[in-house]
Fold:
Amino acid sequence: MADLPKSADVVIIGGGVHGASAAFHFARKKAGRILLIEKKFIASGPTGRSTALVRQFYAMDFFTRSACAAHTIFRNWKDVVGGDGDPGFQKVGLLALAGPERAEHLRRNALRAAELGAGVELISPAEVRALVPAMNVDDLALASYEADSGYADPSSTANALVNRARELGATIVQYRGVDRIRAAGGKVVGVTSEGVDVDAPVVLNCAGLYANRLLAPLGIEVAIKPERHQMCFFRRPAGFGVHPAVADSLLMTYMRPEHGDLTIHGKLSYDEIVDPDAYNEGADADQIVRNAELIAERFPVMEHGLAMGGYSGLYDATPDHHPVLGAIPEYAGLYADFGWSGHGFKHSPFTGDLMSDLILHGKAKDFDLTPFRWTRFRENDLVPSARWAADPHPKHRL
Ligand SMILES: Cc1cc2nc3c(=O)[nH]c(=O)nc-3n(C[C@H](O)[C@H](O)[C@H](O)COP(=O)(O)OP(=O)(O)OC[C@H]3O[C@@H](n4cnc5c(N)ncnc54)[C@H](O)[C@@H]3O)c2cc1C
Structure:
């Protein structure tokens, strides 16, 4: 176990997949003494409970480009990241389904994403049926299909990034919390971890659900609501075979295959806000029953499936369900990468590259992070929904 150094060039708070990615990219860029501090163990927070869908297409250009860049890393991990780790990427394909009301939005958004390089095509209900014969397509008007998308193993991904960062010289300290971010004279001077000061001119806050608690004492107020999301497992009956990941805007559910003949299934949105330090980590009996009904609506054969329980994970939900990214200009040297609100896994291998470029070179490649500044909340300049079949919005072209 690494000891806590007295100083560093960059301190990253949090060993979820975003902190892990930042540590890797800083180390890869030989950015000096990189220190990641995680209060528990790597991927012990929401990252470890992620469904970890890896897809390429959003309604908003920023996210489509970021997801595509990350997808390329997932698919070329050995060449880009190297080391012995493996993110466990499984290319099972991904379908997004729309009914008549949302079909035109899905069409417009998918065509735009394809223009930007996303591997997505539009297919008819009959083509969906040919691809997945077990699916009920009666209510569908259109679907998008990403043949090269799928899912990964979130814990393996974070650990592969951290282990590679360590090989490249980063220091990873686990089971040690950061008490506070230290600042003086309008700039960051380090952190205090369990009573011990670490001096550093740069601090990157990747503390997820707890990121706001570290910022509030500095006068930076961002609301983060811990949203409880219940995921349920169902055993597919014999003869069903495997299926692609499915995002279903009609039933407001999503699912993907899990190991063996299991499918993991959940709702696209939940509204239960909980205490992240004391919440029910299992799935409620009535939610499992409801999810069993929903999965059988889409796959009638699942009436003969077996409910196998479930678990809950938390989204670090900001007011617009989008992350806070970039500099916190009130304090030179303070940066944010948190609040991904349930869609941050797929971007993570690339986000560390963006953030490290911003911090080292003053520019996040050709990505504009302005829409994701923390002050947008108090300015009421929120980022719109960027889901597959979202309504058009001028910010989608950012
Ligand atoms: C059920 C579920 C399903 C999901 N499905 C998907 C999906 O299909 N696709 C997708 O793209 N995304 C998905 N997500 C979202 C995705 O998993 C998250 O956006 C992502 O994992 C967030 O990573 P993170 O590193 O920002 O935060 P976290 O995983 O929250 O990591 C933050 C870390 O910081 C540590 N920490 C906090 N405070 C301190 C402190 N003071 N000192 C030291 N360490 C601290 C925590 O212990 C934690 O390990 C899902 C999430 C959940 C819960």
